[in-house]
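Lab notebook: predicted structure, single chain.

Context: the supervisor wants predicted structures on file for every construct in the current expression panel, including those that have not yet been purified. This is the next one on the list. No modifications to the sequence; it matches the entry in the shared construct table.
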Amino acid sequence: MLKDIIIKTMNELKSKFNVDESLLLDEGDGTIFYMNGRDSTPFDWEYNERLCEFVLFYKKTELGCIKLYVYRNGNMNGYFYDTFGKGVAQRFECDVVDESLVHMAYDNICDFENFNNKKTLDQSINIFDF
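Prediction complete. Output recorded below exactly as produced.
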């Protein structure tokens, strides 16, 4: 499932960029946030050709540490921000995932958002089943 791939990818990125996990915002589950609050999943899907960004946040500043973008075609890339999110962004590329997993995740996220009256804004990915 896509969620497992995102978790694995984020763990690899934390290692690659030597991220101290004690500095990250964590709700007890290694929290990766799905940031759909600014413009919504359907908007990003239609206009940016991707899901909303997946983010690990710094606890101290509540700014992004790692932002991961998953595109409709299966491409994944993003940015690492050091200095508690205030440093220069380092762009990275990740392995491509099966686009059918991305499309399934989109459907599941939209179904979940619609069921919950779109009040599931900027939450842990653990609330979703994709």
